[in-house]
Amino acid sequence: MHTVVEQTLLRIFLGEDDRADGRPLFEALVLRARELGIAGATVLRGPLGYGHASRLHTAKILRLSEDLPVVVEIIDEEARIESFLTEMSPWLVHKLVTLERVRVVRFP
């Protein structure tokens, strides 16, 4: 048997080189979400992407990285996600942020 609950999925698109408080921004966001007891967070690193400036960010054989794209996904109840977004807004200037309603399936 399983249960299905409605939650909100927050996605934050940023670059690997983005920083906050002396550490990678993706790390700072996940650690803060954990401190706040947010249900879950995952960081996804992409091999290729571009943003509003249309500048390609890519992994090349001869280079370790070129500010590769990173997506932070955070999930919890809508009110908790909204509160998190409000607190983190100074770090999210010029970042693409999306919100989606999702159905979470929980298995015992």
UniProtKB/TrEMBL annotation:
Mention any Pfam family matching this sequence: DUF190
TM segment ranges: none
Among SUPFAM superfamilies, the record links this protein to: GlnB-like (SSF54913)
- Highest taxon in the source lineage: Bacteria
User: Into which family does the record put it?
Assistant: Belongs to the UPF0166 family.
Recorded protein name is DUF190 domain-containing protein
**What is the source species?**
Defluviicoccus vanus
